[in-house]
C-alpha cells in the first residue's frame, strides 16, 4: 500500500525570520497561529478517514514554524505513536539536544530535516547569526539518537555557487539525505533569478558531485523535477513503453499524493504558493482532495509549455516556482531550458 503525504504546519512560532519564508517574508509582524490540540486530534482522524477511503497509508511531515514550539508538541507526538503513524520533522536546530532527540526517537520520529542555505556567512545572513554552526552541531544529536538526518537547501541566484561545497559539508558530517529545491519568489522584486542554461549547468555540476560521493552513505534525493529532464537528455531516464498514455507517474506531487494543512486549518494544494482548496475544520479531506478546486491542479492540458512536451507525465518542473514569477500555476517553469515545439 502506497503512502499519502501530509505537510502539517501545527504552529507559526519560530526562532528565525528567514528571508525566503512563506510565513514571514512579506510581514514580520503577523499574529502567530498554533492549531489547538483538540483540532489536531480531529484533523488526524480526518487524515485517517481519508487514507482508509483511498487505501493509502498516511505519512506526516510535521512542521511550522518550528513544530517543537507548539505548546502541546509532545502530546501531538504521543498521538502519532498511539496510531502508529510514521513522521518526519521539518524544524530548526535550536531546541535539539541528545535528550530531546532520544525522546523524538521514542515517539517514532523517522527523520529530522534541517536547512543549510549557504556557507556560514550566507546561511547566517539568510536565517540567523550563529545558525550555521548550531545546525552542524545538532546533526550529531540527531544521528546519535538513531534518527535519519536530512539537510535541505533552497537554491537561488544568491547561493547557487555555494551549493557544491554544502555537499562536501553534509557528507563530512554523516548526513543521511541531502536535497535542494529552488527558491519560490513571494514577490517579483525579491526574485533572485537563475537563467535556464545556468541552472542546467548547475545540475551538471551537482550530478558530478553526487557521483563523487555515491558510496559515501549520503543519499542524494533528486527533488527538483527538472532532474528528470536532465537525466532524459543524458540517456539515464527513458519513457516507459508499457505505461498507458493517460497515466501520470511522476513529477510534481501537487494534487496527486500530497496535501498541506496550516495552523488555522486551511488546506493547500501546495505550501509554496497561494493554493487554498478547503478547510479541514469544515470539510472532509477526502472531499477536498477529490473536489473541483483540487481538480484544477490536475488539468495537465493547461500547462503552457509542459503540455507539448513528451515529459509531461514525468516532470512538469515546479509550477510553484512558475507561480512565484508569474502568478500563473500553468506558466512555463522559468528555469526549464528545453525547447518545445507547439
Describe the structure.
The protein has helices at 37-54, 73-82, 98-106, 120-126, 131-144, 163-172, 196-212, 226-233, 285-289, 292-295, 319-326, and strands at 3-9, 57-63, 87-90, 109-115, 148-155, 177-182, 219-220, 258-261, 266-268, 276-279. It has 342 residues and is an alpha/beta fold. A ten-stranded mixed beta sheet has the order 7-6-5-4-3-2-1-8-9-10. Helix 2 (73-82) links the parallel strand 2 (57-63) and strand 3. The mean pLDDT is 93.
Number of helices: 11
- Give the end-to-end Cα distance, rounded to a whole number of Å: 39 Å
Q: What's the count of strands?
A: 10
Mean of residue pLDDT values: 93
Q: What is the H-and-E element order? A: EHEHEHEHHEHEHEHEEEHHH
Low-confidence stretches: none
Shape call: globular
Helix percentage range: 25-40%
Topology:
Elements: E1 3-9, H1 37-54, E2 57-63, H2 73-82, E3 87-90, H3 98-106, E4 109-115, H4 120-126, H5 131-144, E5 148-155, H6 163-172, E6 177-182, H7 196-212, E7 219-220, H8 226-233, E8 258-261, E9 266-268, E10 276-279, H9 285-289, H10 292-295, H11 319-326
Parallel strand pairs: 1-2, 1-8, 2-3, 3-4, 4-5, 5-6, 6-7
Antiparallel strand pairs: 8-9, 9-10
Amino acid at each position: 500500500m502506497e503512502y499519502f503525504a501530509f505537510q502539517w504546519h501545527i504552529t507559526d512560532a519560530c526562532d528565525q525570520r528567514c528571508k525566503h519564508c512563506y510565513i514571514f517574508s512579506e510581514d514580520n509582524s503577523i499574529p502567530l497561529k498554533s492549531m489547538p490540540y483538540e483540532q489536531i486530534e480531529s484533523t488526524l482522524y480526518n487524515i485517517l478517514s481519508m487514507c482508509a477511503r483511498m487505501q493509502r497509508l498516511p505519512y506526516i511531515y510535521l512542521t511550522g514554524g518550528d513544530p517543537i514550539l507548539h505548546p502541546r508538541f509532545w502530546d501531538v507526538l504521543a498521538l502519532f505513536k498511539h496510531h502508529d503513524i510514521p513522521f518526519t520533522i521539518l524544524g530548526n536546530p535550536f531546541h535539539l539536544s541528545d535528550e530531546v532527540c532520544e525522546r523524538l526517537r521514542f515517539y517514532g520520529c523517522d527523520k529530522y530535516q534541517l536547512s543549510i542555505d549557504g556557507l556560514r556567512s550566507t546561511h547566517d545572513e539568510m536565517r540567523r547569526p550563529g545558525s550555521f554552526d548550531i545546525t552542524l552541531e545538532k546533526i550529531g544529536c540527531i544521528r546519535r539518537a538513531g534518527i535519519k538526518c536530512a539537510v535541505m537547501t533552497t537554491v537561488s541566484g544568491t547561493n547557487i555557487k555555494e551549493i557544491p561545497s554544502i555537499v562536501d559539508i553534509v557528507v563530512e558530517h554523516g548526513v543521511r539525505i541531502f536535497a535542494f529545491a529552488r527558491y519560490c519568489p513571494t514577490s517579483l522584486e525579491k526574485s533572485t533569478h537563475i537563467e535556464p542554461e545556468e541552472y542546467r549547468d548547475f545540475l551538471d555540476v551537482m550530478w558530478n558531485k553526487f557521483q563523487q560521493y555515491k558510496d559515501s552513505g549520503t543519499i542524494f534525493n533528486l527533488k527538483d523535477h527538472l532532474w528528470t529532464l536532465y537525466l532524459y537528455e543524458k540517456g539515464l531516464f527513458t519513457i516507459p513503453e508499457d505505461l498507458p498514455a493517460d497515466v501520470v507517474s511522476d513529477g510534481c506531487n501537487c494534487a496527486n499524493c500530497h496535501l498541506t494543512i496550516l495552523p488555522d486549518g486551511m488546506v493547500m494544494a501546495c505550501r509554496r504558493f497561494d493554493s487554498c482548496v478547503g478547510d479541514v475544520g469544515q470539510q472532509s479531506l477526502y472531499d477536498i482532495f477529490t473536489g473541483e478546486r483540487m481538480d484544477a491542479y490536475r488539468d495537465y492540458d493547461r500547462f503552457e509549455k509542459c503540455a507539448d512536451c513528451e515529459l509531461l507525465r514525468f516532470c512538469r518542473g515546479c509550477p510553484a516556482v512558475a507561480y512565484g514569477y508569474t502568478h500563473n500555476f500553468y506558466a512555463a517553469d522559468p528555469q526549464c531550458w528545453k525547447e518545445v515545439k507547439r
